[in-house]
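Input sequence (94 aa), recorded before submission:
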Amino acid sequence: MKVLADPLRMRIVSLLAHETLCTTHLMEETGARQTNLSNHLRLLREAGVVETEPCGRFTYYRLRPQALESLSEALSELAATARSTDAAQNRRAC
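Predicted structure, token format:
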């Protein structure tokens, strides 16, 4: 979740949900500098959110939907637990 909390990284993920893009395309779309963009892409890659595909001297980035699905499932389970246990009314004594 932390990796997706950054607005630029979330923008990158949103763009990659529609198509596979190289760094040049992502720079054009986001207005970010290459160094900054590369750092964000590295974090997304290390977190398993995106994967790379070398193509000549370019590197293309592709979203890994299963990473987002795993996060979605984990959040749904937490919401279901909170609903079923009525966490708002469950309080430990101090």
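Checked by second reader. The first strand starts at residue 21 and ends at 22.
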